[in-house]
Predict the 3D structure of the following.
Amino acid sequence: MADCEKMPIFAKNFILTLNMEITPKGLAALTGGTVEGDENALITGFAKIEEAKKGDLSFIANPKYEHFINTTEATAVLVGNDFRPEGEYSATLIRVADPYATLADLLRMVESMKPSPEGIEQPCFIADGVEVPEKAYIGAFAYIGKGVKLGKNVKIYPQSYIGDGVTVGDDCCIRAGVRIYEGCRIGNRCIIHSGVVIGADGFGFAPKDGHFEKIPQTGIVVLEDDVEIGANTTIDRATFGETRIGQGTKLDNLMQVAHNVTIGRNNVFAAQTGIAGSTHIGNGNMVGGQCGFAGHITVGDFNEFGAQSGIPNNVGDRKRMIGYPAIDARQFAKNQVYIKNLGKLFSEQRNNK
């Protein structure tokens, strides 16, 4: 969003902490929308469509929720330009091109106006020679190792560990209890949530004389700009070279990314997905929860993988896959129908004998 100083006065009023007050008319002017209903009603908060009360702004972006327009108590609802309500409803409609994206913009505006911590809390440890930029924040009990480079406006929350030689770019947010091992590089505007471990040793062991001998893991992890890592996710350092997460990629909670994995730009991965070592994943993929990628495979661009898919082999571009082993989503749906009817087919076969 634009710099707050350049916003119109009603936008500033709207984003004053959580005590926002604005009308549908003001919201429409802010978002480029149009109003159907009471354009001067007072909006004071956000809520889900099924839970909203008087004064709340809600939204409908999924057709499954359209029926709530008839029962919601929300004062105003963001809807698409093509939304056609059926039956009676009391909410004022604010029509926009993309309700979900518009809501995201509004929430970012509110979030941007919350107080942001600054300064160095005590006790914490900052190695000699580390420069802490103005407006940076170092929380209590944080550890900043030798040779660490911190970008402008970095926020490092309490009990986080930043190992020797780590680079953290501008405007990064490192939440409480994050561990970033030595030498790793974090780009600009990255968000790393609590419990994340970046740069732990990859799972490398060689069998020798009846036991497993550790293979030293000498590489690093690189997060490019605008990456977000969910809570308790782990990203292992490379055996040598880099484990790399591409610009704009978002990893959900409780994921495992193994050593020497490379992930391209603008991918989204849902929780509990695991990616085995040396796998290469392209750009723009959408991955459901609990998926598993085998090691040493290549996945192309703009694929979609349903939840709990297992991907044992290379995948090209623009595929929609689900199941284990993952197959084309349409074929998977057909197979499920076949399986559902197997009992009936076997029974008919026995009766025909």
